[in-house]
Amino acid sequence: MIRVALVDDQPLFRGGIAMILESQADIEVVAQESSALDLLAMVERDAPDVILMDVRMPGVDGITATSSLVRELGESAPRVLVLTTFDVDEAAASAIEAGASGFVLKDAQPDFLLAAVRAVADGSQVVAASATRRLFERHRARAASTPGPEYNDLTPREREILIRAARGLSNAEIAAAEFLSEATVKTHISRILSKLTLRDRVQLVVYAYEHDLV
């Protein structure tokens, strides 16, 4: 069962999303909040696996809330899936850099929203990978820099998989390109994240673009 919390200041939108999620046997909506002011308390109380969070809210916005959550809870923080109106949104890019695991457009089809929630809960892939890449290509604030010594710890195979993952390929696509099983690719991805001290595949995309690897 995937435990989901909704944080959005629009009651009708929030209620509609809740109905879609609750229609699924494997998803449970455990909290609904109109702001991110008491986000940490909500997480401690309701223990969501995934937070669907509006990026633009009065008071504490989704970027600040995500950053605070990741800073306070680290690896134990729930996954954050940002809700945004535009597919190229600087605020969404900032939220992802702050630690969000991806984003979904507010006008997305229900099936895509459900797939995104499941993907983020699984932690196995970047949500809306192509749009995420466009965000970093357009809004990357820092100049590209040479990778640090942590990059030297990667094997040649791991470097190749890193680049393929940063380009938005799924585990299945990487497996086909590298003549490996999906399980082996998943193991490689886990090792890459560990060696580079990255939280998830979204941060892997950030790393690759910041260091001009793609």
Automatic annotation (TrEMBL):
According to the UniProt record, list the residues that bear 4-aspartylphosphate: D54
The answer on whether this UniProt entry bears the keyword Calcium reads no
Domain named Response regulatory is located at 3-121
**What's the superkingdom here?**
Bacteria
Write down the species: Gordonia malaquae NBRC 108250
Record's SMART domains?
Answer: HTH_LUXR (SM00421), REC (SM00448)
The keyword Phosphoprotein is annotated on this UniProt entry: yes
Q: Which residues form the HTH luxR-type domain?
A: 147-212
Write the record's keywords in alphabetical order, separated by commas. Answer: DNA-binding, Phosphoprotein, Transcription, Transcription regulation
* GO MF term (any one): DNA binding
Q: What is this protein called?
A: Putative two-component response regulator
Instruction: List this protein's GO terms for biological process.
Output: phosphorelay signal transduction system; regulation of DNA-templated transcription
